[in-house]
Amino acid sequence: MATDALSLTFAALADPTRRAILARLAQGQTSVGELAAPHQMSLAAVSKHIKVLENAGLIAREKDAQYRYCKLQAGPLQDIDGWVGAYRGLWRDNLDQLDAYLADMQRGDDTKKQ
Q1: I want to staple 41 with a disulfide (CB 3.0 to 4.6 A). Which of 5, 12, 45, 91 is the partner?
Q2: How far, in Å, CA of 112 to CA of 106, rounded?
Q3: Mean pLDDT of the region 42-53
Q4: pTM greater than 0.90 (yes/no)
C-alpha cells in the first residue's frame, strides 16, 4: 500500500461519503455529529471516514469541551491540482480538436442547408 501524500489523498477521495464530508466542510467548520447526520451509517462508521481524511491531511480536528470539530485543509487538494495540471494540456488539445471538428461539421451542415 502506497503511503506517499498524493496516494493517500487519492485513496481518501475515492469514497463518495468522504467526498460528501469534504463538500460539507468546504462550507465551514462543523462538529462530527453534524457531519454524520446526513449519512445512513453509524457515528463510528463516519468517524472512520473522518480518520481516513485526517490521515490524508484533508481535514483537521479540534476538541472544544465534549465536542470535536472538523475543518477542511486545502493543501492536499492543491497538490492534486498540481499533479492534474501536468496533464491539463492533453485534454485542452483534445477539446480544441473537438471544437474544430464541431465547427467543421457546423459549416458542413450550413453548406448542405443552402
Answers
A1: 45
A2: 10
A3: 95
A4: no
